[in-house]
Design goal:
It is a single chain. This protein is mainly α. The chain has 2 domains: about 180 residues, no CATH class; about 280 residues, no CATH class. About 70% of the residues lie in helices and about 0% in strands. The chain contains 19 helices and no strands. The longest helix has about 40 residues. The radius of gyration is 23 Å and the shape is globular. The protein starts with 5 loop residues before the first helix and ends in an 11-residue tail after the last helix.
Length: about 475
């Protein structure tokens, strides 16, 4: 069940909201937990036990850390806890990858391959693993008090708005909200607005652009053409921004409907002036997680330049592997590690001399080129796509791609580029009359919702990118 599906929008979410507000305040966490488990079990029934097992390990490790005063014993408990939930992640997400590569190597050398039943990847396993790890580490560091109620900790791990697409929520940011939160009309209404904006990003922009990128990425290598490839390259950069930020907006909006205030996860990353700045604006919860729990513990930039560059590469290698279990994601992580190292070695000084538009163009294409690795699992096909960018033969006028390249598609494409910048905020800021601003805002939201309802009713194309996470 995905947020942009009719069954979620017109059945599940209204049912949760009704049940949440009709019960007494002390039972609301249990309502959210019940529906969160139902949401996950809807399509992942067998994998629900993996998430619950992970939550159980996290709960008991937190209690053990609180009861143990000996520092060396606490380190052992921390190591055991992190190892246990990481082993679950590695088994569920990376076992197929490791076995496939082992079988390829063994058959190449003439040995028998391992007979292996493919493991189905549990939805959202990477997200709830990072939630659990941050909880254990923060309890160990004394930044969080362990949750005594296992139901409340299970809610933190499984809360459905952020379970499958983020943002990554740290327990210390929501612990007081889990215990007690105030809900007012203003917060609820702002949640509805944010949800509609996120849904519009996903349904009206990302899905429309995705039709072209998916078609081009599935084209046979010999049919790839520079014109289609450049169009798909720019399109995937815009599409992924609206898809990812759209899901974050929906999660933040739903959180507000239930009284939670989640931190922002995207801050117009495509206007960044360097890749370093880009990673402070893109998927902020993931970037700061790796900064605080991997980069800083490795020494950050305090142990010399060589160690700093090594730490960056380790962080982005893990970042790439976190996104998916394939060589494409390994290369994706190394690619971004290279870009940041390149900037720190002196290219950032060159960027400062360039006009702002050129810096933003550099960031966009630097990010979009990496998105090809993100979007095409087969790295051989990905490199063939890169090669096709320099294939300037005349495109086939009879290609089926023209079925998707409608005036509507080009309109959405241009609107997507414009709205990837803070254009709307700038224009709304020019409206000084509060009454006119409110009328304009609500009118736009109503029109967006009507357009989305029509799109969902008429189209079955609604891809879910996060299934690999």
């Amino acid at each position: 069940m995905v947020f942009s599906s009719p069954i979620f929008l017109f059945w599940f979410l209204p049912m949760v909201l009704f049940s949440y507000y009709v019960v007494a305040k002390q039972y609301r966490n249990y309502v959210l937990l019940f529906f969160s488990l139902l949401f996950y079990g809807w399509g992942e029934g067998k994998m629900l036990t993996v998430m619950l097992l992970s939550a159980l390990i996290i709960y008991f490790i937190g209690l053990l850390l609180e009861k143990t005063n000996n520092q060396s014993h606490r380190k052992r408990i921390l190591f055991v806890g992190i190892s246990a939930i990481l082993l679950l992640l590695i088994y569920c997400k990376y076992a197929n990858f490791f076995i496939d590569n082992y079988n390829f190597a063994s058959t190449t050398l003439g040995f028998n391959p391992v007979i292996w039943d493919k493991i189905v990847l549990p939805l959202g396993v990477s997200f709830y693993t990072l939630h659990g790890m941050s909880y254990i580490i923060d309890v160990y560091r004394g930044h969080s008090v362990p949750q005594k109620n296992p139901m409340k900790l299970a809610l933190y791990i499984s809360f459905f708005p952020q379970l499958i697409a983020g943002p990554i929520i740290r327990y210390k940011d929501v612990d007081k909200q889990i215990e007690d939160r105030k809900i007012d009309v203003e917060l609820f209404v702002s949640g509805i607005k944010r949800f509609i904006i996120g849904l519009a990003k996903k349904v009206l922009i990302a899905n429309m652009l995705g039709r072209i990128t998916e078609f081009v990425f599935k084209m046979p290598v010999n049919e790839l053409n520079g014109y289609w490839s450049w169009l798909a390259l720019i399109s995937i950069g815009v599409q992924l921004y609206f898809d990812f930020s759209g899901y974050s907006d929906m999660a933040i909006g739903m959180g507000r409907m239930f009284g939670f205030r989640f931190l922002e996860n995207f801050n117009y990353p495509l206007i960044s002036q360097s890749m370093k700045e880009f990673w402070t604006r893109w998927h902020i919860s993931l970037s700061t997680w790796f900064r605080d729990y991997v980069y800083y513990p490795l020494g950050g930039n305090k142990k010399g330049k060589l160690r700093m560059h090594l730490n960056l590469w380790i962080v982005f290698l893990l970042n790439g592997m976190w996104h998916g279990a394939s060589w494409s994601f390994v290369i994706f992580g190394c690619y971004h590690g290279f870009l940041l190292t390149f900037e720190r070695l002196g290219f950032s000084k060159v960027l400062q001399w360039l006009p702002r538009p050129f810096r933003s163009i550099y960031v966009f294409f630097g990010y979009a080129i990496g998105d090809i690795l993100f979007s095409i699992d087969n790295y051989h096909h990905a490199f063939a796509f890169y090669k096709s960018l320099f294939n300037f033969t005349t495109p086939d006028p009879y290609s089926r791609i023209h079925l998707y390249l409608t005036y509507e598609w080009y309109f959405v494409f241009i609107i997507g580029i414009i709205l990837s910048m803070p254009t709307a905020e700038f224009l709304f800021g020019k409206v000084s009359n509060l009454k006119i601003k409110n009328i304009l805002e609500y009118s736009i939201l109503i029109v967006l919702f009507i357009l989305m309802a029509g799109e969902l009713a008429n189209s079955s194309y609604n891809p879910f990118i996060y299934f690999r996470f």
